[in-house]
Predict the 3D structure of the following.
Amino acid sequence: AQKITQTQPGMFVQEKEAVTLDCTYDTSDPSYGLFWYKQPSSGEMIFLIYQGSYDQQNATEGRYSLNFQKARKSANLVISASQLGDSAMYFCAMRGLSGAGSYQLTFGKGTKLSVIP
Amino acid sequence: DGGITQSPKYLFRKEGQNVTLSCEQNLNHDAMYWYRQDPGQGLRLIYYSQIVNDFQKGDIAEGYSVSREKKESFPLTVTSAQKNPTAFYLCASTRRGGRGTEAFFGQGTRLTVV
């Protein structure tokens, strides 16, 4: 079974500052992928970044980076230089990459980020 | 452009009625999913399908039914047995493993019981 825990229901950050959103996970799959999604108030889910469990480097996509610590089972999202448009819900998710787990995508409860001007 | 189309965007249901939410994808993805999202909550898996004519229950399948007769289509029926169906429903699809296996989502259907 897979489990994602996001312990921060809400976060505030000053515009242009960096912010870290926490995510811890648990899985029995030997290989897996970790994802972060952004959900604005419109409801659409926007894919931000992906980290494979065997990737040696932490993933980066523009202002987004993933601080992956495999031994601690954490996959925190770092947003640099926050913008007002970053205000949204952020979800951490995971998916097994082999066997029965490869089709099941499990989400955390999300963190609501508010960027303050 | 490839993507996932959900319809309708808003849906109102009377007590005791069945309603069907549509989900179509042209991404040639193998797997499709239905999630339910309640206000301020994460996404909970209702059903998923790995292949045509096959599907599995997720964490909250009671009161819902699905079919997968075509690779492109995965409709969800909310039956009268679902006691609290008011929620935001998201359909998603993924391809088989490896890098870039992020899920693509539709725009969602907001269902309200009146």
Q: What stands out?
A: The radius of gyration of chain B is 13 Å.
